[in-house]
């Protein structure tokens, strides 16, 4: 057996290969807690679902309107590489010539590969930029609302993401850790760009052993690991803002606010106070008021507020909180609540976002920006919020608001997708499927017959990270790994770089795209440019030849344990924030000036649109759509490791026993989960440690609608979620605000 080091977005592994087949996957010695997601590689890479050769949809080849109505259900014809490349290149050129480059949507999502060279999104954007540009997506499905609201309140998202208070600081100083949305270990298995050391669960356990008390605020108890022995508060999904306001009311009315800090480091608390006391809307945000909305008992709200004020307290919110209707508000309110406590910038105090959301949050590593594949400039300069893709396809020429400005949707005539699966990430997949049939042509690079490949017109078989050489290195991981080619490219698969080089050859700019560099030369170029960056920061990377032989390099250690915003706390004049006032903006004149009725100038409770428009008696259950434990998003859902987690081939929906009994359901029953937007099948599991009005169905099952009934067969919850922007400010996804009903499935006869 030969062994190779390779990397994924959920860890670095040593892969065992015999006779050209992957037979074994083990975590590297540097990883104290390897993710078992790595087992998907054993059969997933060489699975029967691999795309063997270039394929073109039959109806597209036949001409006319290319039978776009058959996209997603049509047959495919195998064609030679040269023919497929020429057809695709000529189609892209036709559309650019006739409609302009904004008519081409360059779709990608950055989880496709942990490699820095073979990164599908970078390769796609480099190619399209050299061709004249395209329309792109901006922000992410994970944190779109946060990315837009927080710069108005405190700081740009990338800065916060990598500079938050370290878990080591929390271990040493935090007495009370309050987690809105919990601290699910399953999410901390992954990190964009790759992860070497899985430490989140270990460090949180160390904090508990050191005396930190945890409070988990989530509709389900298992959002926090049992070993943390967390107190559990179970609010109605999507009501965290109301709960926070109730906590804030107690702090204010019992004179527990840090008035000096609010005066010196914040702006707008006077308006916040008026809102809390009901002077602006006639409704005092008392614990009783909060309880009537969130369902947490009054005494528990009051008790938690007093406990927070009396201890060194750290507040955090999961990324999931801002993926709901008015998703900007819980993050803004968390900052407001932390400011009222006045512990921001103190050791072990203050707030942060996404602890346990990804493996790197709170780690004590040196932050180093490795060189990347140059993508160049997008000549169109045009982008839309990523959660509005279906809306754009359906409404060419329409204008939406985004962060204080208008964005007019272009008329998209071609989609080129490489990396990621929109039929996983997007909401209301039935709407997306309908909108996906509107462009003239859809081109996809993909290793497997995933939903996005099945819904394409031209499909190029792409290699996986185990079929090529690359470098794994990211700004939040202390290691750089040589990703070794472990197996030969399967069937006729080619690397994305080779595919785009073939298209560029037809279009006449192959030299500009490849710069006449081989794969190894590109990796060497990235390393050498990284060496220059390191020299400017006062340290040396090893030579490329040395790193290539050793296969791994660890950056120098971080010099200190970080207290995020400690400098700002010590001297706000010398270390101002990147806000108009230089302070924490609990009220933002900028946001207020936009005039958005769904995102006013301060953190505000607003009733979700779903609650107002949906018949609550017909659809009484709140649907949670967490990340799956056995895979990253929808990647390798075809693998045995992922399939073993299912019930009768369906994703598992978890229900409270009482909710199941009311519907005469037993464990492992197959059920129909439905609302007015769609329906899917799922297998039942029971959990008494969750709200009775809540069900949980993980994302990531491959989208497979029944051609007769329309029911999604595998258990993809995004056929149920509403495709609505969080607000006019961020236009992020609001999937976590969703009401459904569940019933025993009666097969169609």
Would you write up a description of this structure?
By secondary structure, this protein is of the alpha/beta class. The protein has 3 domains: 2-139 and 371-465 and 490-516, Rossmann fold (3-Layer(aba) Sandwich); 154-225 and 234-360 and 579-594, Dimethylsulfoxide Reductase, domain 2 (3-Layer(aba) Sandwich); 609-744, Barwin-like endoglucanases, CATH 2.40.40.20. 30% of the residues lie in helices and 18% in strands. Strands 5-4-19-18-17-6 form a 6-stranded mixed β-sheet. A hairpin with a 2-residue loop joins strand 1 (2-8) and strand 2. It is globular and about 75 Å long.
In short:
The protein is of the alpha/beta class.
What attributes does this structure have?
749 residues; alpha/beta; Dimethylsulfoxide Reductase, domain 2; Rossmann fold; Barwin-like endoglucanases; six-stranded mixed β-sheet
Furnish the topology, listing elements before pairings.
Elements: E1 2-8, E2 11-18, E3 21-27, H1 40-44, E4 55-57, H2 58-61, E5 76-78, H3 81-99, E6 104-107, H4 120-130, E7 135-138, H5 144-153, H6 157-163, H7 167-173, E8 176-180, H8 200-209, E9 213-217, E10 231-233, H9 240-253, H10 259-265, E11 266-267, H11 269-276, H12 287-294, H13 298-309, E12 313-317, H14 328-341, E13 350-353, E14 382-385, H15 389-394, E15 399-402, E16 405-408, E17 414-418, H16 422-425, H17 429-436, E18 441-446, H18 451-454, E19 458-461, E20 470-473, E21 479-483, H19 496-507, H20 510-514, H21 519-536, H22 544-550, E22 552-554, H23 566-570, E23 584-585, H24 589-594, H25 609-613, E24 621-624, H26 640-643, E25 652-655, H27 657-662, E26 670-675, E27 678-686, E28 694-696, E29 739-744
Parallel strand pairs: 6-17, 7-14, 8-9, 8-12, 9-10, 11-23, 12-13, 17-18, 18-19, 24-28, 25-27
Antiparallel strand pairs: 1-2, 2-3, 4-5, 4-19, 15-16, 20-21, 21-22, 24-29, 25-28, 26-27, 26-29
Helix pairs in contact: 3-19, 4-19, 5-14, 7-8, 9-12, 9-13, 9-14, 12-13
């Amino acid at each position: 057996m030969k062994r190779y080091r390779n990397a994924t977005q959920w860890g670095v592994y040593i892969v065992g290969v015999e006779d050209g087949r992957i037979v074994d996957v083990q975590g590297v010695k540097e990883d104290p807690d390897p993710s078992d997601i790595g087992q998907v590689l054993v059969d997933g890479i060489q699975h029967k679902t691999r795309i063997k050769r270039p394929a073109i949809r039959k109806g597209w080849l036949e001409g006319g309107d290319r039978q776009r109505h058959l996209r997603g259900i049509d047959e495919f014809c195998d064609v030679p590489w040269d023919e497929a490349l020429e057809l695709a290149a000529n189609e892209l050129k036709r559309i650019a010539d006739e409609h302009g480059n904004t008519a081409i949507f360059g779709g990608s999502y950055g989880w496709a590969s942990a490699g820095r060279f073979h990164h599908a999104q970078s390769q796609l954007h480099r190619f399209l930029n050299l061709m004249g540009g395209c329309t792109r997506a901006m922000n992410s499905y994970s944190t779109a609302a946060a990315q837009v609201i927080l710069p108005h309140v405190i700081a740009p998202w990338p800065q916060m993401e990598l500079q938050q208070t370290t878990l080591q600081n929390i271990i040493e100083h935090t007495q009370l850790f309050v987690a809105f949305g919990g601290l699910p270990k399953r999410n901390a298995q992954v990190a964009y760009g790759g992860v070497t050391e899985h430490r989140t669960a270990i460090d949180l356990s160390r904090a508990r052993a050191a005396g930190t008390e945890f409070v988990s605020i989530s509709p389900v108890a298992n959002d926090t690991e049992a070993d943390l022995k967390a107190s559990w508060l179970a609010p109605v999904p999507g009501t965290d803002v109301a709960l926070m306001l109730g906590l804030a009311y107690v702090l204010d009315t019992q004179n527990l606010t840090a008035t000096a800090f609010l005066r010196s480091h914040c702006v707008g608390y006077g308006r916040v106070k008026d809102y809390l006391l009901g002077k602006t809307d006639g409704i005092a945000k008392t614990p009783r008021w909060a309880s009537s909305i969130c369902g947490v008992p009054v005494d528990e709200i009051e008790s938690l507020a007093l406990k927070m004020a009396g201890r060194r307290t750290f507040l955090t919110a999961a990324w999931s909180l801002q993926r709901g209707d008015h998703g900007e508000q819980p993050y803004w309110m968390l900052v407001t609540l932390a400011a009222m406590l006045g512990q921001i910038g103190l050791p072990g105090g203050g707030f942060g976002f996404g602890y346990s959301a990804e493996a790197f949050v709170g780690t004590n590593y040196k932050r180093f920006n490795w060189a990347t594949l140059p993508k160049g400039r997008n000549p169109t300069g045009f982008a839309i919020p990523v959660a509005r893709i279906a809306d754009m396809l359906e409404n060419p020429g329409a204008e939406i608001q985004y962060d204080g400005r208008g964005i007019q949707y272009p008329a998209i005539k071609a989609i080129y997708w490489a990396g990621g699966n929109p039929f996983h990430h997007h909401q209301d997949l039935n709407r997306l499927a309908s909108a996906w049939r509107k462009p003239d042509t859809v081109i996809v690079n993909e290793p497997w017959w995933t939903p996005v490949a099945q819904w394409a017109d031209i499909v190029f078989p792409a290699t996986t990270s185990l079929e090529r050489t690359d470098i794994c290195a990211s700004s939040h991981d202390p290691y750089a790994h040589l990703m070794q080619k472990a197996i030969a490219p399967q069937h006729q698969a080619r690397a994305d770089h080779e595919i785009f080089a073939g298209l560029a050859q037809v279009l006449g700019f192959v030299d500009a795209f490849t710069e006449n560099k081989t794969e190894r030369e590109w990796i060497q170029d990235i390393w050498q440019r990284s060496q220059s960056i390191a020299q400017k920061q006062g340290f040396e990377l090893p030579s490329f030849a040395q790193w290539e032989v050793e296969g791994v390099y660890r950056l120098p250690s971080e010099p200190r344990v970080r207290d995020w915003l400690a400098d700002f706390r010590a001297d706000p004049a010398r270390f101002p924030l990147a806000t108009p006032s230089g302070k924490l903006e609990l009220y933002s004149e900028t946001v207020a000036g936009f005039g958005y009725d769904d995102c006013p100038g301060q953190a505000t409770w607003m009733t979700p649109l779903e609650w107002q428009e949906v018949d609550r008696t017909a659809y009484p259950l709140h649907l949670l759509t967490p990340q799956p434990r056995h895979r990253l998003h929808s990647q390798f859902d075809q693998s045995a490791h992922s399939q073993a987690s299912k019930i009768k081939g369906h994703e598992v929906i978890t229900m409270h026993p009482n909710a199941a009994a009311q519907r005469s359901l037993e464990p492992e029953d197959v059920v129909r989960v439905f609302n007015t937007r769609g329906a899917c099948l799922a297998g039942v599991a029971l959990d008494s440690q969750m709200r009775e009005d809540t069900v949980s169905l993980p994302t990531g099952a491959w989208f497979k609608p029944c051609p007769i009934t329309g029911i999604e067969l595998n258990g993809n919850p995004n056929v149920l979620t509403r495709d609505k922007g969080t607000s006019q400010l961020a236009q992020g996804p609001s999937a976590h605000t969703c009401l459904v009903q569940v019933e025993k499935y009666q097969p169609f006869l």
